[in-house]
Design brief:
With about 90 residues, the chain is mainly α. The chain contains 1 helix and no strands.
């Protein structure tokens, strides 16, 4: 009877370890898959950030160009106005 209880105890312990081991394997696989997903998301976010930075730099350059164009147009209008005033006063 004592041997039977010992054998049952050992078998129970072996079964418990086997079930825990498969649970650990599944958890490890899920963690690895989650880590891969997180890494892919991080890479995508980094790429998006680089694209946003490039777009911001282009927008800044375009704004500077527009300001220069507006300044040149104002200067041309001032010259036309001055020429008109000169022609009217003659």
């Amino acid at each position: 009877m004592k041997k039977l209880a010992t054998v049952l105890g050992v078998l129970s312990l072996a079964g418990l370890l086997a079930s825990c081991s498969s649970g650990i394997d599944e958890a490890t696989k899920k963690a690895e898959a989650d880590a891969s997903t997180a890494q892919a998301a991080s890479t995508a976010a980094q790429s998006s950030a680089q694209q946003a930075q490039a777009a911001a730099q282009k927008a800044d350059a375009d704004a500077t160009s527009a300001e220069d164009s507006a300044r040149r147009a104002k200067d041309a209008a001032d010259r036309v106005e001055a020429a008109f005033r000169t022609s009217v006063t003659k």
